[in-house]
Specification:
By secondary structure, the chain is α/β, with parallel strands linked by helices. It has helices at 40-52, 71-78, 86-93, 110-118, 169-172, 174-177, 186-199, 225-231, 305-322, 344-361, 386-404; strands at 8-17, 27-28, 33-34, 57-62, 98-100, 124-125, 129-131, 137-138, 140-148, 154-164, 182-183, 204-209, 237-239, 246-247, 255-256, 259-264, 271-281, 284-295, 409-410, 413-414. The protein has 2 domains: 8-314, Metallo-dependent phosphatases (Purple Acid Phosphatase, chain A, domain 2, 4-Layer Sandwich); 326-414. Strands 8-6-5-4-1-17-18 form a 7-stranded mixed sheet. Strands 9, 10, 12, 13, 14, 15 and 16 form a 7-stranded mixed sheet that branches. The radius of gyration is 23 Å and the shape is globular. This is Metallophosphoesterase. InterPro entries: 5_nucleotidase/apyrase, Calcineurin-like_PHP, Metallo-depent_PP-like.
């Protein structure tokens, strides 16, 4: 360190959501009830508080899997031409700085994803594409900030951002991606992107890793967060996702192989926060200290009306669709032993799935093939008596219809 370049400090706060899965409010569409502490309209208040209490610069990222996961997401995809998608509006209202992609964001096809990306002010980033492209998605991103240092000087800071996801996405969404997009392994994609960001002049690098932590030293092509942290040099903070866990745990480490790390759960229930203490010398910036934590909405965190209003049209369309009568039966059904053995509710759901598929493939080269429906139990018994059991059956029947939805063609390709 030269005498002309005194040592100084600055603070950078990184906020992150992940695996929101279209929980834009706390409304559980299938059960028609609100879940406390869930939804982007509630988390918006938490985000505002975290920003307002930051000591220095603050960035907000999303780590993917935002388009799919609730009937609201399916409705937005099914009626894309006449229902404005709320997610881009929410991203814009909350001033996200960058968005990473998750595997489920391809569930409605590339054209639908491209239209959603086009409506977001925040750049969308994904470095996992080995070939092919998604319009509007870039592999790396540089964010310019000016930060006030402990010596009173204001200095420029360049934050590099990239994103990776499981390569199995190409298999899980093969009907959309085969012949169009090939995906690279997580570690190799991360290494390539970090090298590029370093060459582009990034002072600090944030990795949006839509993958679980896994374990360093073990080969896990789907959950490679720990492996990236151990093998890819130059990453200063890592946001994890995909497995819906919460990290750090209460008594757990706040880093992953030395890299500050958070995984902000699922369904907009938690906000991830990494605070970096940055040191500056005449040779540039480095991380001098860090803290990682999860912020859960408290009693004071009420839904932000402006965000709830953005979600209202899509929620109304979803309610209208789910209120339609699908079928009637005079027979009694229950799910008392649903997790132990198949029963009449499973048979009903399987028959509904087969009927929907048979109607859609009629007259095609698939029409003569045998149809087999696989039904997984989702509930057993009922904590609130028979009314709950009846509701559970209704929910499962509707879920079965949504699972068949992807076979129905639309002007935008096939549904999820």
């Amino acid at each position: 360190m030269s005498m002309n370049s005194p040592y100084a400090f600055a603070d950078l706060r990184i906020l992150a959501t992940s695996d929101v899965h279209m929980h834009i409010t706390g409304w559980d569409a299938l059960r028609d009830r609100n879940v406390a502490g869930r939804g982007m309209d509630v988390l918006a208040h938490t985000i505002e508080t975290a920003r307002n209490t930051a000591n220095g610069a603050c960035l907000l990222f999303d780590n993917g899997d935002f388009l799919q996961g609730t009937p609201v997401g399916a409705i937005c995809a099914a009626y894309a031409s006449d229902v404005r998608h709320p997610w881009p509006d929410i991203v814009n209202a909350l001033s996200y700085d960058a968005i990473g992609l998750g595997n489920h964001d391809f569930d409605f096809g590339v054209p639908f994803l491209e239209r959603t990306v086009a409506h977001m002010d925040a750049p969308t980033v994904c470095a996992s594409l080995a070939s092919g492209s998604v319009a509007g998605v870039v592999p790396t991103l540089l964010i310019q900030r000016k930060v006030t240092c402990s010596d009173g000087q204001v200095r420029p800071l360049v934050i590099g951002v990239t994103s990776v996801l499981p390569p199995q996405t190409a298999i899980w969404n093969h009907r959309y991606l085969t012949g169009l997009i090939e995906l690279e392994g997580g570690v190799s994609a991360a290494r390539r992107a970090v090298t590029a960001l370093q060459a582009q002049g990034a002072d600090i690098i944030v990795m949006l890793c839509h993958s679980g932590a896994g374990a360093s030293g073990t080969k896990d092509d789907e959950n490679f967060g720990a492996e990236i942290a151990a093998k890819v040099e130059g990453i200063d903070a890592i946001i994890l996702g995909h497995t819906h866990e919460r990290l750090p745990k209460t008594a757990g480490p706040k880093d992953l192989n030395g890299v500050p790390a958070v995984m902000p759960g699922y369904a907009a229930e938690v906000l991830g926060q990494i605070d970096l203490r940055l040191g500056w010398t005449d040779v540039g910036w480095h991380v001098a200290g860090h803290d990682a934590t999860l912020r859960l909405p408290g009693a004071e965190d009420q839904p932000v009306p402006a965000i709830t209003a953005l979600a209202a049209p899509a929620l109304a369309k979803t309610q209208e669709t789910l209120d339609q009568t699908l079928a009637q039966t005079t027979s009694g059904f229950h799910t008392y032993f649903g997790m132990l053995m198949s029963g009449p509710s499973d048979a009903l759901i399987a028959r509904a799935m087969i009927n929907v598929i048979a109607e859609q493939v009629a007259g095609s080269d698939l029409a003569d093939l045998p149809l087999i429906a696989s039904v997984a139990p989702m509930t057993m018994g009922g904590a609130q008596g028979r009314a709950t059991l009846s509701m559970c059956l209704r929910d499962r029947f509707k879920c079965a219809i949504w699972r068949c939805w992807h076979l129905i063609p639309t002007p935008f390709g096939r549904r999820c």
